[in-house]
Amino acid sequence: MSTGNVTNRLANLGIVLPQAAAPVANYVAAVITGNLLVISGQLPLVDGTLSLRGKLGGEVDLEQGVACARACMVNVLAQLQAATGSLERVVRVVRLGGFIACTPDFTQHAAVMNGASDLAVAVFGDAGRHARSTIGVASLPLDAPVEVEGLFEIG
User: Fold this and answer.
1) Residues pairing with 45 in the sheet
2) Is 6 within 8 Å of 93 (Cβ atoms)?
3) Which CATH number characterizes residue 95's domain?
4) How far is CA 98 from CA 45, 80, 131, in A?
5) pTM for the whole thing?
6) Residue 98's beta-bridge partner residues?
7) Phi/psi at 86 (nearest 5 deg)?
8) Domain total for the chain?
9) Quick one: angle between helices 109-124 and 62-84, nearest 10?
10) Endoribonuclease L-PSP/chorismate mutase-like domain: from which residue to which, for each copy (predicted)?
11) Residues 24, 74: contact at Cβ < 8 Å?
């Protein structure tokens, strides 16, 4: 990444990163080992408040789920910024993991998770293309519809 590239892309997307959320249990928000950085699962908090509650296929529709995944990714970026001091240190988005709280018959997990994946590519360009897992679950903390975690290579 060239200096300022990520910062410029965020500005062009109209994204101002929030303060990174503090962990709510016995874990840390980020771990760096060697040149890898792991970000713990982030919820769709906006201004410190959960943006939506419920399950995909139930109270939450696909468009809302995509927006939640994007909000989760904004919070992942905030944690990256806090852990590294600069998003310009990100060499590659290695992997994103998505957890989708949903009804048993919901099958559009991948479409929901694209909200996070699309933002990763928009912010980091080709270095934002990543491996991914997306898993449907019965529930998430605070009745959040989506949670996103990430693995990043940093320089």
Assistant:
1) 50
2) no
3) 3.30.1330.40
4) 15, 17, 11
5) 0.96
6) 134, 148
7) -160, 130
8) 1
9) 40
10) 8-144
11) no
Token pair for residue 79? 């944690």
Dig out the tokens for 144 from the structure.
Answer: 């959040």
pLDDT, tens digit, 9 for 90 and up, residues 20-50: 999 888 999 999 999 999 999 999 999 999 9
Domain range for residue 139?
Answer: 5-154
Q: Is residue 67 exposed (0-12), middle (13-18) or buried (19+ Cβ within 10 Å)?
A: buried
Place of tokens 């060499």: 91
34 Rama sector, left if φ>0, alpha if ψ -120 to 50, beta otherwise: left
Q: E-strand spans in 59-103?
A: 90-101
Give residue 15's identity as a one-letter amino acid code.
I
